[in-house]
Design brief:
The chain has 442 residues and is of the alpha+beta class. The chain folds into 2 domains: 144 residues, Alpha-1-antitrypsin, domain 1 (Roll), CATH 2.30.39; 244 residues, 2-Layer Sandwich (Antithrombin, Chain I, domain 2). It has 10 helices and 17 strands.
Length: 442
């Protein structure tokens, strides 16, 4: 759906933890390495360490807080009755590019939302993410990972030299000159084909029919793909059907994976957290999937509220040690979810980019005074099974010419709705966040 730009005036609990007190040396490698914060972050290569500066840690911590605030709105207001998955990182990059082409109050609003000091800070952060966290780990034996940025520009316009250089150097974006005036439908199809290719076929039709027309001048898009094998895979022969309890009180039979091995679990007042590490490559990055399971079968909304309301929540709640498990089951599931981001962003205070004005640092043309963000489309996919996880996400912003308008065994039975996320543990970067309400409703 196309959105017109309009002018607006903006005026056993942890603490009494049931968690086993294992020695830290038995904890996952990412915890031991995460203690080292002094060395400058550098490009990952086989045999090298990845270590985060305090500045990068702070940036990622801020990004995580922003991510959780978006997740809360999606889970509780935009899609309260749906399975949800989205990539806050993908959306962050699109918004950072828009900020880089903005000035004045619009820029101030974007920087405030992204909790960043300046566009230089945002661009540096994006550059480090692209070159380090999001570099492919498959050659080194880790997860397969790819991230790509693309920009489509109306052929009668040219980008400002500094903006073009920024897209090339910090965002590694491919630039394509296109004819929006006469071939808008063809351009939309081209963007959708690019997204589908970059996400290994998992995200299709990112731009819906009618979202691109002759008033479109720019499209910023990105695509994220992740495929990781569990460090300890589940035995498929042990997968069996059990009841999964829905929020409405009913239940259904779904396939559950199980294991008798020790797991990274932490128990708190009202919820538990499970961490499942992916196989690690020689570059030493450590990706994990985390499951946040409320004790109460209908406790997901309250947990989502809690997760988003506490700054630094993840840093204090993730499991660091393996514990013996009693009953242990998590469901297999597939989720595909898409949404239009403006309604969420506006509720969180990002209004001016959609109302026009101040996007003047993008193009070398007086028309730059009349550019605005018409929409931001986002789609994500995740599949969790005995082998591991495959996930993808894509975001696209369309810019148009506006009109004048504990110590004992711990049970972890995920047989009711829960939250999940995929995270790189050394830097703390969150790639995907979601909620599962019904494992059979993909």
């Amino acid at each position: 759906m196309k959105t017109l730009c309009r002018s607006n005036k903006i005026g056993p609990k942890e603490g009494s933890s049931r968690e086993e007190t294992n020695d830290v040396s038995n904890g996952p490698l990412w915890w031991n390495m995460g203690l080292v914060l002094r060395v400058l972050l550098h490009r990952v290569s086989v045999g090298t360490k990845i270590e985060a500066t305090m500045d990068l840690r702070e940036s990622i911590s801020n990004q995580t807080d922003v991510s959780l605030s978006m997740a809360k709105l999606l889970f509780l207001k935009e899609a309260p009755n749906k399975n949800v998955v989205f990539s806050p990182l993908s959306l962050n990059v699109v918004l950072s590019i828009i900020a880089a082409g903005s000035k004045g109050p619009t820029l101030d609003q974007l920087l405030s939302f992204l909790r960043s000091q300046s566009t230089d800070h945002l661009n540096s952060f994006a550059s480090q993410l692209v070159s380090v966290v999001l570099s492919d780990g498959a050659p080194a034996g880790g997860p397969r990972l790819s991230f790509a940025d693309g920009v489509w520009v109306e052929q009668t316009m040219s980008l400002q030299p500094l903006f073009k250089q920024l897209l090339d150097t910090d965002y590694k974006a491919t630039l394509t000159s296109v004819d929006f005036l006469k071939k808008a439908v063809e351009v939309a199809n081209e963007v959708n084909s690019w997204v589908e290719k970059e996400t290994n076929g998992l995200v299709k039709e990112l731009l819906p029919a009618g979202s691109v027309d002759s008033s479109t001048r720019l499209i910023f898009a990105n695509a994220l793909y992740f495929k990781g094998a569990w460090n300890e895979k589940f035995d498929a022969s042990m997968t069996k059907d059990y009841d999964f309890h829905l929020l409405n009180g009913s239940s259904m039979k779904v396939p559950f994976m199980t294991s008798k091995k020790k797991q990274f679990i932490r128990a708190f007042d009202g919820f538990k957290v499970l961490g499942l590490p992916y196989k690690q490559g020689e570059d030493k990055r450590q990706f994990s999937m985390y499951f946040f399971l409320p004790d109460a079968k209908d406790g997901l909304p309250a947990l989502a509220e809690k997760v988003a309301s506490e700054s630094g929540f993840l840093e204090h709640k993730l499991p660091l040690h393996k514990v013996e498990v009693g009953e242990f089951r998590i469901p297999r599931f597939i989720i595909s979810f898409g949404f239009e981001a403006p309604s969420v962003l506006k509720e969180l205070g990002v209004i001016l980019p959609f109302s026009g004005g101040d996007l003047t640092k993008m193009v070398d043309s007086p028309m730059g005074q009349n550019l605005c963000v018409s929409n931001i489309f986002h789609k994500s996919f995740v599949e969790v099974n005995e082998e591991g996880t495959e996930a993808a996400a894509a975001s696209a912003a369309t810019i148009l010419l506006r009109s004048t308008l504990s110590a004992t065994k711990i049970d972890f039975v995920a047989d009711h709705p829960f939250l999940f996320l995929i995270r790189e543990n050394i830097t703390g970067t969150v790639l995907f966040i979601g909620q599962l309400l019904n494992p059979l409703d993909g």
